[in-house]
Input
Amino acid sequence: MKVPTLASMAAEGKKPDVLFWVGCSGSFDERAKKITKAFVKILNKADMSFAVLGTEESCSGDPAKRSGNEFLFQMQALVNIELMNSYNITNIVTTCPHCFNTLKNEYPELGGNYIVQHHTQFLNWMLKQGKFSIKGGKFKGKRITFHDPCYLGRGNNIYEAPRELIKKLDVELVEMKNCRSKGLCCGAGGAQMFKEPEKGNKEINIKRTEQALELKPDIIAAGCPFCNTMMTDGLKSKEKDDIIIVKDIAELIAEAQNL
Amino acid sequence: MTYLPNLLFLLLLICSISLFIRNINKVITNINLGKQINRSDNSGERWKNMILLALGQSKMVSRPVSGILHILVYLGFILINIELLEIIIDGILGTHRIFSPFLGEFYSLLIGVFEIFAFLVIVAVTIFWIRRNIIRIKRFMNPEMKGWPKRDADYILYFEIILMFLFLSMNSTDSLLQNLDVPNYQKAGWFPISSFLDILYANFSIPDLILLERTFWWMHIIGILFFLNYLYYSKHLHILLAFPNTYYANLELQGKFKNNSSVTSEVKLMLDSSNNSFDSSNNNESIPDKFGASDVTDLTWVQLLNAYSCTECGRCTSECPANLTGKKLSPRKIMMDTRDRLVEVGDNFNRNNSKIIPDGKQLLKDYISPEELWACTSCNACVEACPIGIDPLSIIMDMRQYLVMEKSAAPSELNNMMGNIENNGAPWPFNNQDRLLWAEEN
Output
């Protein structure tokens, strides 16, 4: 797979139009890596000028900040900013809403000023620019519901970009009881991904999965690697993972185009 | 002797307004125990927020039933208080319906509209009572609503019904006296609702009717002045504080959490290898005595204003994913605890000549447990749900910061995660050199 790094491009005296910030999940997590690869396939298909930081990338600091470790967050942020500024980065796209939010909103005060886009925004922009087109493909007519990631939706008021893409797939988009600004969290945010939940009577991802199951969808679309994991686990524990799949929007688009 | 009622009224008015001002000053003093934060920017946006959220109640209607009922009570409250102006002037001057000669037909219309709203308020408040006490809607039944918060909510409902009944009875007896051509009771007003109460009072003699009319008039105004001073002890303070609270609310995107600037200088010192980091004497940035918040005085004045403005409606808690799945966290409780602790610290401050004598208690642990704080997913559902822009999440995050940075008291899995970030640049124990392995896979 053609994945240029910033370092290799800089060595050739070149600079990409956009940095693809992969994120830790997208780099290491088996499930999330598929999202990363799907997105890169689309970028390559459209012949976009992009690069990744590769081994120079480091955690954005989101889970440290949300855990209360401001020191560690700012260490990560300042190191990342220094690196990206040294490459004169101006545009960033990322498939992780947590990285997206942190880079976009919390880095500027620390000296990192970039135009940051979530991949669903970027893909919409690519469509409008005519860089590529979407046909329904194998998902045509399927019943799809979209789970709003908190840090994309409420956190940054981005509700329509993912939905516009889904609608392009000729599918039936159905909404859960809690959607858009009232979307229910998958349970992973605020560093919950990395710890056992507090004592309660139910897991949050089960509650959210139940809301999705009420709609009897074929596919639960996600826009965040953490939500993806939580919803997949939810389906497994409801023993519905054989009939319903969780897919990132990038995967849906890549697969629909047989990439 | 003829001026006795006027004097009595004036005395009552002065006393209750002084007491009210004293209480408001206490609220302001207590809010100022919080740390400074600049919210004087963007006044245009802030006015817009206040006009939409507080004046316009725009977020209330996201739940249509309670929203519309609330707007009725709110409008009724504002409209009927226009008449308060006349009542106060009448009370001081010893006149009766002093505005009526000047306003003529319009006066009648006003009184009629007030009456219609009084009726709607009674209907709305009755439904509110049914929702709390018969239907027992879940968000009113959470553990933090036991005891005083429950009684406070009910008292206000009873009180509003009594006030409206007094207002309508006052009008009813007044209109009966007007129709009997009693001197002083000039014909004024349209009484579409209170006329239904006439059957209660129609059989009284004129002196008794006058006595009744005066009694209702006095009880109504005494009731309002009592209510004014009850506010301080009640969640009902929101009718005033919702306005500054929406004005000073956070205007940033909800996903953007504030960066602790005192940390930045330290981190920069550490990262700058050419800098002699052991010599911190030339570091002008003052290092705070505490990172994060363990007590109300570590919070900003806006967070404390938030706490006083909370009406305990529980919309936040009813949207909180942690609370919905049975965890201990309730964003409403975070606000109520902050307020209750602030009242305690504020009393301490006032008692001890503007100094806080340590009382062996703090907001963390004595009010809010770490278990509640660690259950938060930082999803912002509570912030989004609040009709008046209260931000419980910022308090949760400040307290987490204290737990981690001052007490190293994060759950052990989070310590592992943070250790991984420090060592490998990822929250999992992967080698950073393997970051690009995915590119070689299919």
Remarks:
- Chain B touches chain A through 70 residues (CB under 8 Å).
